[in-house]
Amino acid sequence: GIIKKAREISILCDAQVSVVIFSGSGKMSEYCSPSTTLPKILERYQQNSGEKLWDAKHESLSAEIDRIKKENDNMQIELRHLKGEDLNSLYPKELIPIEEALQIGLTSVRDKQMEIWKMHTKNEKLLEEENKQLTYMLHHQQLAMDGGVRALELGYHQKDGDFAPQMTMAFRVQP
């Protein structure tokens, strides 16, 4: 019922109302006027009552968040500078470290490219060597098979002539 009354007061009186209720079992119920938020109401309460709702730990966390946001903004600006954006606002002395960072980055990229190129060249040589070995092995196997087929052909063409008319074709097995 109290949340219903809070809604009615908010509408009828055009007041900013916020209600937070915790039951004995720990269940939370809340209502906040549509025209505001709970943090805004708590901030107004703190200003009007003079009581601090946040302790020193929360204040230091808030300061840390602000510091990290500022650091993030600075890093975003530095990243834009490294990308070559927004350079007109910089002085020549500020451009020198950016140029040095870009030179170091360029050297690193070229070193990595060279490393990859050497690895590809090495792999190419290994593949060529393996191809030569496989070609050599295939050639020797083919010679051995050709020799075996010839021996079979000679065996079937004997002088007594029993098998010669029956075997008119020779079969070759190719890998």
UniProtKB/TrEMBL annotation:
MADS-box domain sequence ranges: 1-35
Keyword field: Coiled coil, DNA-binding, Nucleus, Transcription, Transcription regulation
Compartments (UniProt record): Nucleus
Residue ranges of coiled coil: 58-85
Signal peptide residues on this chain, from the entry's feature table: none
Annotated ranges, domain K-box: 58-144
Record Pfam families: K-box, SRF-TF
GO cellular-component term (any): nucleus
Annotated protein name in UniProt: GLOBOSA-like MADS box transcription factor
Organism of provenance: Dimerocostus strobilaceus
